[in-house]
Amino acid sequence: MAELKRFYNMFQPTHYDIFLDIDRESKKITGKTTITGTAKEQNISIHQKDLEILSVQLDGQSLPFEIDNENDALKIDLEKTGDVKLSIVYDAQLTDTMMGIYPSYYTVDGVKKQIIGTQFETNFARQAFPCIDEPEAKATFDIALKFDEHPGEITLSNMPEIRVVDGIHYFDTTVRMSTYLVAFAFGELQSKQTTTKSGVKIGVFATKAHRPSELDFGLDIAKRSIEFYEDFYQTPYPLPHSWQLALPDFSAGAMENWGLVTYREAYLLLDPENTALDMKQLVATVIAHELAHQWFGDLVTMKWWDDLWLNESFANMMEYVAVDALEPSWRIWETFQTSEVPAALQRDATDGVQSVHVNVENPAEIDALFDGAIVYAKGSRMLVMVRALIGDDALRAGLKNYFAAHQFSNATGADLWSALGDAAGIDVGAIMNSWLEQPGYPVVTASVVNGQLVLQQQQFFIGKGEEVGRQWQIPLNSNYAKAPTILAEKKVELGNYAALRESAGTPFRLNVGNNSHFIVRYDDTLLTDLLNDADSLDDISRLQLLQDLRLLAEGKQVSYVAVIPLLLKFADSHSAVVNTVLYQVAGNLKKFVTPDSEQEKNLQDFFNKLSAPQVARLGWQRKANESNDDQLTRPYVLNAALYAKNAAAIAVAHDLFTANSTNLASLPADIRVLVLRNEVKNFGNSRLFDDLLEAYRTTSDASYKADINSALTSTNDLELIARLITKFKDAETIKPQDLRAWFRGVLSNEDGQQAAWDWLRDDWDWLEKTVGGDMEFTTFITVIAGVFRTAERLAEFKKFFEPKLETPGLKREITMDIKVIESRVELIEREKEAVNKMIASIVE
Ligand code: BES
Ligand code: ZN
């Protein structure tokens, strides 16, 4: 792509006066934007997209202008440089794409309604007002809004409303900020509000389709998060309020607009009486993530989009730091280990993956380059590694200086490394660059060779990978003092193994705590020693053993057969992390069996064996005062029992359904999905299907919606599947934001796979039009690659997607996904006999 000239180099705005008149009925917007700033050149460009520019005035005089749609530009010859004031009058449109200024649709008591909201990151502010739409172009904003208002509506923006004159809502001048963080919204909203210790007003806003109690949890977390960050960052929250707004239609998960954070309803609102603990944890981490950005991202912003990872990786780490402080009993770092860590390790093992830091010139490339597993999961793991290296005191001291030096301005990754490095007294940048600038990660092989304990690093691949000699600076975190803190070489010898083992008195370990981004391959001597001692391993170590072995098996470095005994060994654990990873790994065995075969029957028996004692221990109903671990473990073991077609489990689930059939939403939230799925699968009929679909359309509880989605997509009735698929394009039933989850559900259902795959191929153009231009789009391909496992599907996948390699933004995803499926097909071919034999021998 041609190198783009940054508009900020030509013109540097200092202040915007924005007036927008929005007519929801006709979807028309008329706008006037006055920009004050300094022209560095006579010929300047200002961003605009899909705006109809009516006039441009310079200091009160009309000027000719030119529209360059290719570059999203309005071009003006100022005939001078220096300080100028430009007034631009224009028409625009409400979009229906969840980008720019867009309506969200919802229903209250059968009446259809909408609220208007905004989404400007990464580069959609230019669809709302002409601006220098680059993160470095920080300015202050005065926003004034008029709309076809009726009584009872509320108007929100980054700053408080200061007056309403002639139906125009005026908001207070913002602090100096980037355009992508500007936001506003209006409609019939309810709210709950409180105030932090330091006097910041906190609010949660939602449509009136929700019960007021659904706002309480978010309000409490938001308040305490702001208090936590003010203390942790030692930097005050600089705005008078922090509003959290739930929007019924939302493309991303949430967005950190300064002072007016927007969320998917599912990530802000919840029923405090009946929501599963993991869902509460998810909502809390999302809120903590966005509020971490209020400083890291909003107060100090990346200079350019190539450092978007810095924003996101950092917020992704801080969400755990904050929630751990707010709710220590949740042990939220364990969730980091079962969600971010495996996501990063899996994705980063495919050759062709991007590095965390990628150069990007054209903002249109940014969305295409946005790989969540890398930018969020791997990036946050990098920062967790830094935090483990320097400790919290240095982290806080470094951040305080970083905020003080760059507040209301911009910074780069290097600025952060130097702030943290100065505070810690080590060269953080040197260590980090090997992780940020290179894709992939190493497997460290630990082996005893001629009596010597030897460590060696090499890039780890799942599927075909080209060895190009990459090396990393690896924080080893060994339990043997002889191992270096950082392994920078390809290979080191630690000395005589017998002597080291003798003096340590415990098996050799690497990556204790699992905070560094690498996996370990112990040779037989070391692994046997470790496993003999398995009873004394803590939960994270058990998780790590299971996770690393599974990855090594996926990478064909060990046999999958080696993983299976460990599942049995840890199956009686009372730890939620161990059980979560255990069933993640066990679930990976499903790919080795053919549906409805003897082998599947054996695998089901194996699942029964794994889960039966825990099912007996935990039962279906929550016990008084039970531990968080038990609450979180229950759904995994019950799910395993249902997969195993355990007759007793099926019967209990059916009874629970029957007993609650008049109010299914009130089933205990943590097992509700299991009960519904069991019913659809084993007792389903067309009426149940219609009832559930109707409940899906009418409920305002996002967790319940997700449960119904999961249940309906699991049906084995082909006619019902066909009916479901007809709903995919019906936004009144399935909102575009939720479509991927429905697609995934049907595709991963053996009986639905063909229909879902046919739908995607037939309706690809529609999909591209509806969710294209949005980073959600490529993830539909990722979903398919996560499911397909046969040579036939691989061939079909290639046939359909290879011709699309040149579609902007799809090349990397398609290329990687072909490798992913290829590798899986080969693995199954190679291992299925041994795996199935092993399973058979266990269940006989
Ligand atoms: N700033 C992002 C959302 C975003 C990123 C929008 C890039 C447009 C381009 C926001 O802070 C975020 O990370 N949202 C996450 C949810 C989060 C809790 C992990 C998302 O949308 O997935
Ligand atoms: Zn974020």
UniProtKB/TrEMBL annotation:
Name its co-factor(s).
Answer: Zn(2+)
Which reactions fall under this protein's catalytic activity? Release of an N-terminal amino acid, Xaa-|-Yaa- from a peptide, amide or arylamide. Xaa is preferably Ala, but may be most amino acids including Pro (slow action). When a terminal hydrophobic residue is followed by a prolyl residue, the two may be released as an intact Xaa-Pro dipeptide
Residues annotated as domain Peptidase M1 membrane alanine aminopeptidase: 217-435
Q: Where is the Aminopeptidase N-like N-terminal domain?
A: 12-181
- Keyword Zinc on this protein? yes
Gene Ontology cellular component annotations, sorted alphabetically: cytoplasm; extracellular space; membrane
InterPro entries on file: Aminopeptidase_N-like_N, Aminopeptidase_N-like_N_sf, ERAP1-like_C_dom, M1_APN-typ, Peptidase_M1, Peptidase_M1_aminopeptidases, Peptidase_M1_dom, Peptidase_M4/M1_CTD_sf
The UniProt subunit note reads as follows: Monomer.
Q: Where is the ERAP1-like C-terminal domain?
A: 510-821
Query: What lineage, starting at the top, does this entry show?
Result: Bacteria, Bacillati, Bacillota, Bacilli, Lactobacillales
Record EC number: 3.4.11.-
Q: Which domain of life is it from?
A: Bacteria
Q: Name one GO biological process term.
A: peptide catabolic process
The protein's matches in CDD domains, at most eight in alphabetical order, are given as:
M1_APN-Q_like
Where is the site described as Transition state stabilizer found in this chain? 376
Instruction: Answer whether the UniProt record assigns the keyword Zinc to this protein.
Output: yes
Single GO term (MF): metalloaminopeptidase activity
The record lists the organism as Liquorilactobacillus sucicola DSM 21376 = JCM 15457
Q: Could you identify this protein by its name? A: Aminopeptidase
